[in-house]
Specification:
The chain is 48% helix and 19% strand. The chain has helices at 2-34, 60-74, 90-96, 98-119, 175-187, 242-246, 294-301, 306-337, 347-367, 372-384, 386-407, 413-427, 431-440, 444-462, 496-503; strands at 41-48, 51-58, 144-151, 165-170, 191-194, 204-213, 216-227, 231-234, 237-240, 254-260, 274-288, 465-470, 478-480. The strands form four sheets. Strands 5, 6, 7, 10 and 11 form a five-stranded antiparallel sheet that branches. It has a three-stranded antiparallel sheet with strand order 1-2-3. A three-stranded mixed sheet has the order 9-8-13, with helices on one face. The radius of gyration is 31 Å and the shape is elongated. The two termini are 60 Å apart.
């Protein structure tokens, strides 16, 4: 009995040792097999413009070649009871380690097949292949087959992009523009103080918000501060006339209205339906702006005088005009280039990409100097029409990416540093901190796309013919809150500062 237990232990230790050796040899075996391309038979079907169903057949000759490579790597280090290391006959080694080597060969064949398909440029993947690894088997005889689905960039004839006729927005800022922007900027540092009178447009109210549908509560926000503006923007709908609804209210008053949810509302059951929203006023407040003292100027940016602050505001406005110029040019360019882009995009792709589009839009706004209030309003606007806006953004991206490939345009390290610096300047964080947060949240690829697309748009504009048109900055008439009136997840994308707080 004792001898038998010793023999079993010896076998187990040998098996464990070879298992490690088999795994360690996998990469070398795969490299050796890579020298000769696989003779794949590939059948590709296209259920839609952005989907491919791929069936791959690997001939027996390639399978045997991979087995030969795997066993060839294993033989010199194989430990089989009764034989010196590396001296066991191949048949015995094959019998003993068949299952382990078969798994190794399957993995190598799959990886090399997918890599070869990518190198052959049969399609441009935009997601990872989707297939059931456990369902794939290496047969005893005959070829090996496996199938997978994958999302791809659609194939299309590249539209002509040189010589487009475009309008260019221009604006010379006046002192009145600076005054208005200064007031908005000071509002970020202002203090909300209780007010005994009734509420007026521009005032702030602390409210409890309750939304009901068919008599049942679907959402509730017990205590939130809202500025009274013409429109109150939820993540899933807009309440117009909010300023008129709340005018003249005081603590204890209640006001109610109906709101129609968007077709992209988080609560699928209530999409496109009306909900009843009640506001209970808990407190009325007014904003007290800080004085432009020397201490305050130093605190908010190291400014020596109010003139320096006004110069900084002017530069920020110019950045915002540059953003609007780019957005307007982008809309004109992509409208012309996507005129024939009538591809059907898979719902799953749109759903996954909608969050990335929100991230991209928010990042672009931050680097262009917009406030968090303006960014939230834009986010809510995108959420309220997420499928359509995401579909448009994806079609634009596919075409701009093709131009980038043709013109060999890509993002360089200096581009990343510039973008991160601009975001950091707006958020008040260090560039190092901003970069760490972007990397942590997996947004460096979003930043890369943003850089490349901007470079492509610049290239297209270099070849375009322009006619100047005066730009009128949009008035801020919507107050955005991070609440879904119909219930469900309506959380906004965190700012860099919020992300920092979460981490800490």
């Amino acid at each position: 009995m004792s001898a038998k237990r010793g023999k079993e232990q010896e076998d187990d230790e040998a098996s464990a040792g070879v298992a490690v050796e088999v795994e360690g040899a996998a990469d070398e075996s795969s490299d050796a097999a890579d020298a000769t391309p696989l003779q794949l038979t590939v059948d590709i079907k296209s259920p839609s413009a952005c989907e491919r169903r791929v069936a791959v057949t690997i001939p027996r000759e390639d399978i045997e070649r991979y087995f030969d490579n795997a066993y060839g790597e294993l033989m010199p280090t194989s430990a089989v009871p009764g034989f010196r290391v590396g001296r066991a006959p191949r048949k015995i080694v094959e019998h003993r380690y068949k299952d382990q080597v078969t798994e190794q060969v399957k993995s190598s064949l799959l990886m090399d097949s997918l890599s070869q398909l990518g190198d052959e440029n049969r399609f441009t993947a935009i997601s990872e292949p989707n297939f059931d690894l456990d369902a794939v088997e290496v047969p005893e005889d005959g070829p090996m087959t496996f199938e997978f689905t994958i999302e791809v960039r659609p194939e299309f004839d590249m539209p002509a992009w040189k010589g487009l006729k475009l309008k260019r927005l221009v604006r010379q800022f006046t002192d009145a523009d600076i005054d208005e922007q200064l007031e908005q900027m000071l509002a970020r540092y202002g203090q909300l103080v209780p007010y005994d009178g009734t509420a007026s447009p521009g005032d702030y109210v602390t409210v409890s918000i309750t939304a009901t549908a068919d008599g049942r509560q679907v959402a509730h926000e017990p205590d939130t501060v809202v500025r009274i503006r013409p429109t109150l923007s939820f993540t899933d709908g807009r309440l117009e006339g909010f300023d008129k609804l709340m005018a003249g209210t005081k603590a204890g008053d209640k006001r109610s209205a109906e709101l129609t949810l968007t077709q992209d509302a988080p609560n699928a059951e209530l999409r496109g339906k009306k909900v009843h929203v009640e506001f209970e006023v808990l407190e009325v407040k007014q904003l007290k702006l800080p004085e432009l003292t020397a201490e305050f100027l130093e605190e908010i940016g190291g400014f020596k005088t109010s003139d320096e602050l006004r110069d900084a505001i002017r530069k920020n406005l110019e950045r915002q005009v540059e953003y609007q110029q780019q957005q307007n040019a982008r809309q004109q360019i992509t409208a012309l280039l996507t005129k024939s882009a009538d591809w059907e995009l898979p719902p799953g792709l749109l759903e996954r990409q909608s969050a990335r589009e929100l991230e991209r839009a928010a990042m672009e706004l931050r680097r262009s100097g917009f406030s968090e209030t303006e960014i939230r309003a834009r986010e809510n606007q995108l959420r309220q029409n997420s499928k359509a806006s995401t579909a448009t953004a994806l079609k634009e991206h596919f075409i701009l990416e093709r131009v980038a490939e043709e013109e060999k345009i890509d993002a360089e390290e200096g581009d990343y540093e510039k973008e991160i610096f601009l975001i950091a300047m707006q958020s008040g964080e260090s560039p190092r901190r901003v970069r760490a947060q972007l990397e942590k949240r997996g947004l460096m690829d979003v930043l890369r796309n943003q850089i490349v697309e901007r470079k492509v748009l610049e290239r297209v504009q270099q070849e375009a013919k322009f006619k100047d048109e005066k730009y009128e900055p949009p008035k801020v008439d919507a107050e955005a809150i991070s609440m879904a009136a119909g219930g469900g997840s309506g959380a906004a994308i965190p700012s860099v500062t919020e992300a920092k707080d979460e981490e800490e």
